[in-house]
Structures are given as C-alpha cells and as structure tokens.
Amino acid sequence: MKKLIKCGKLFKASNEAVQQNMAIVVEDNKISDVLEISRIGDLGNYEVMDLSDKFIMPGLIDSHTHCWGNGSFKELTVDGMYTVSPPTYALRGIKWVQNDLMAGFTTIRDAGAPGFADVAIRDAINEGYHWGPRMMAAGLPLNALGGHGDSPLQPPYTGGDRNNVRAIICGPDQARQAARFNFKYGADFIKFMSTYGVLTTGDDPGAQEMTYEEVRAIIEVAEFRGKTTATHAHGLNGIKCAVKAGVTSIEHGTFIDEETAEMMVERGTFLVPTLTVNTRMLSKMKEGEIADYAIKKAQICKKVHFTNIKMAYDKGVKIALGTDAAAPYLYHGTQAEELVLMVEKVGMKPEHALISATKTGSELLGWDDRIGTIEKGKLADIIAVEGNPLNDMNVMRNVGFVMKDGTVYKNFGEVIV
C-alpha cells in the first residue's frame, strides 16, 4: 500500500519556500507525488502518517563523518588507533552510524576509516545485513609521509607505504598508487590531506603537507573514474593548492581568504566547514582529557574559523554541512549543532543552513538525482521535527520522524527497527 504523509509545513529544499497543508505520496522506496492535501482522494487507499502539525523536510546529509570513532580523544591517539583491528572498527561503527540515522542523517559521507571499515559498513547496510544511513565511503585517508595522521611509531613498525590506518605517500607516483589502491578495495571517493592538522602531535595546522603534483595525481586518478575528492585543509596554501588542482571539496577551510573563496566560486568547489569540531572540544573538555598541543592548535583555529567561513558564505561559496563526527565530544547522532552554529555564528539564513544539509550536500556527493530534495521520483528520505527550524534551529537537535528509502525508522517516540 502507498504511504501518505500529511505535512503541516513542508520544506522541499529545492528552494527557500515553505508550503502549507501538503501531502507526500510514497510508493515503495520513492516519492511518487507531492501535492496539496485537498487534492487527495480517498484516504483509505493509503497508509496515512499524520504529521500535519510538524515541519517536514528531506533527510539530512552529513558530508564529513568518521564511522570508526565516537567522541573520544583517546581513539585518535596512536595508542588508540593502532591497537584496534579493522573488524572491531566496523562492528563498533555500525551502532554509531545507526545513531546518525536516528538523528535524521539519512545519508553520510564517511571521510576515511582504518582497514576500510567504512566500506564494510556501507556494504553491510546496502546488502541488508544491518540497517543504517546511506553511505559514501573514502576507505583509507591519504597522507604525505610524516604528515597529519601519519604515526610517529619508529621503524620497522611503520615509516612509509600504507598500514591499516592510513595510506602514506611521498611523490606523485605513490599518490596515484594509493588512490588506485583505495578504489580497488571499494572506496567511493578519495580523501587526502593538503595540510597538517589539530589533533596530530607536533605539526602546524596551517602548513601545507602535499605538493601540487601529489595532489593533482590523486585527483587525476579520481577524475579518470568519474569520482570525487575531498581534502583536509586548514592552511591557506594547502587550500589554494587543492582548489587549483581541481579538488571537489575543501574540508574545514579554516584560514581561507577572499581570493581563494572567489576562486572556489569560479571553479564550483564545495566547502565543508565542520564548525562543531573545535567548538565542541574547547567547550566540553575536562582537565587532562585533551593533549595540550591539540588545545593550543584548536584555539588558534577557532579564533578565525567563523569569520572566514562567513566571508566565504557571503561571497557565494557552495557550503555543504559536514561535522567530523568522531572528533572529541562530537558523538554520532549529535551533529545538529552544526546547523545552529551556521546560523548563530556564521550568519547563514536558516533556509540556507537547511539547504546545505540537504540539496547542496546531495550535489557534493553527486547524488542529487536521487536525494537532497522532496520531489517526485526522488528516494523517500524524509524527516520531521516539532517547531520551526527557520525560527529556532535548535529544534533540529531532536528529529522526531525519520524515513529512509520509504521505511520509517522513528515516529515521534516510536522506534521502528
């Protein structure tokens, strides 16, 4: 039987409009019609879900998650990362990505996991062994030798090539090889590091990590396959390098400047700001839980991050919501704070913040023909909340209704899994 969702307020995300008294018809796993409730005939022909006092919108997309961790700094240390087996990462991660789905994130782009754990979880969900969000997986992140994320373990335990946690490259040939290796074992896109970072010991988050030739080699391999790329990039030089080389999205973008933002607009490069990472860590940490070097770097980044992302937004850079779920205190299922920060700290219009988590996210993933808006023919990924997020974005912290692929997983107090 077809399902019919009666909508009080409907935000289709194809534009900024909110429609009243609409109905969504769902047949199997797709939206078969969107029309005024008054045009519906005999309701006896449908399984009716009455959300006529709720705010309805497309399922959310988190374009930067990590399924292998869940908010502990210890998980990100060498001792934490290199003493866990890839199967353990996958088995733990299933529960965590399920938390994402129950929070309204019907799709996630996982930006790298040890041992291809993200690929394993994606496949288990797609094949019906487990339930969870729709996933795009990166496999092993690509790092330059000695760069952000490379371990400081002494030879012969590490030192080059790859391990279960990273693919380590030095030079364009190794960059190509690492990208090809990832695609061979199931990656949907390539994630690489253009700059150093906050949570790795001993490096400057703004310094460029890879050469243009290395970055271009990675992107070229992805382009051959019609795939996308994402780069961890805090520092300006690394951001510029990746944009010039043709990267699909800049992750973090902390020290972006006006010239680079304009170049991103011209080239259509996406920006995934991950505003919640440093905000959550610096506000939630207790004494002794976070290493001093990470605190200092996070403080440096936080001073400029909101201001620079606002500048990029004002210039028209395409912004897609991504959170870096798994970072310290950034637990899976709590990512809605990113929407709040977009509005309250960056100054985005609430409508634009919601579009960043739906329509723009689907465009970044290249899945805008299937998800991201509520339109006839799209997959039935639909969520609902009490209240109106356009008036108070905090209501997105408590998504009450979740439908993915036409299946209801949650309906205001009733969990259906």
From TrEMBL:
Top-rank taxon: Bacteria
Residue ranges of domain Amidohydrolase-related in the record: 55-407
Pfam families: Amidohydro_1 (PF01979)
Signal peptide: none
Protein name listed in UniProt: Amidohydrolase family protein
Native organism: Lutispora saccharofermentans
